[in-house]
Amino acid sequence: MTRTSLTREEVLAAAGSLVRQHGPAALTMRGLAAELGTAVTSIYWHVGNRESLLDALVERTVEELGEIRPRGRTPAARVVSVARTLRRELRARPHLIAMVHERGLTERMFLPAQEALVHEMHAAGLRGARAAQAVRAIQFQVVGYVLVERNRERAPVQRPAEEELWHAAAAEQDPSLARALAAPVDQDRLFAESVRALVAGLLAGGGT
């Protein structure tokens, strides 16, 4: 049964879901219409052609990244919360983020998160170039970490693997270090600990 009642938001949500799961190449007007159980003409009526639909998805992604809200009782805790939320949002929509980048809107997409970080830097007593450096350090930490995670996920099976490479001799006779480096990486914990350490260093003596 073909749906006759459909909203633009429903079309964008379904299109975004398809792109998130399978990439932009998987998004066709016919495929989207089939996903929604409606006629192709209905899709065109709501969003125009495919390029217009992609542009709308990019704008929607930019708006979603702008909804990051700091949480916590201290500036340091709120900065960490922004970093963790930004990482989660970037990882949740890699194909959409790539589309934003291709359309030259990356800086605009990151601006709301940067503005939230600026507010927390001021709350911590940082001003001027030092505050700007801290904001960029946090952003680069998040983006760099996400890129490393993505590369690890897409990498072929490693031979030899880490557990085969690390032994006491390779770790300067530190067996516990060798075991730790040979163990699987807890990416969430590593990110949280590294960003907390970075923020603590950046905000140290903020008022001086």
Structural account:
The protein is mainly alpha-helical and 208 residues long. The chain has helices at 8-22, 29-36, 40-47, 50-65, 75-92, 94-102, 106-123, 128-154, 162-165, 175-182, 187-203. Helix 7 packs across helix 8 (128-154). The chain is flat and about 70 Å long.
Question: How far from one another are the termini?
Answer: 68 Å
Largest β sheet strand count, sense and barrel closure:
none
Share of helix, binned: over 70%
Give me the number of helical elements.
11
Instruction: Kindly report the average pLDDT value.
Output: 90
Number of strands: 0
Which stretches are low in confidence, meaning pLDDT under 50 for 5 or more residues running? none
> Given the C-alpha coordinates, what overall shape results?
flat
Class per helix and strand makeup:
mainly alpha
Radius of gyration: 22 Å
Spell the H/E element sequence. HHHHHHHHHHH
Proportion of residues in β-strands:
under 5%
Short overview:
With 208 residues, the protein is mostly helical. The protein has helices at 8-22, 29-36, 40-47, 50-65, 75-92, 94-102, 106-123, 128-154, 162-165, 175-182, 187-203.
SSE map:
Layout (H helix, E strand, L loop, with lengths): L7 H15 L6 H8 L3 H8 L2 H16 L9 H18 L1 H9 L3 H18 L4 H27 L7 H4 L9 H8 L4 H17 L5
Which terms summarize this structure?
single chain; 208 residues; mainly alpha; 71% helix; 0% strand; flat
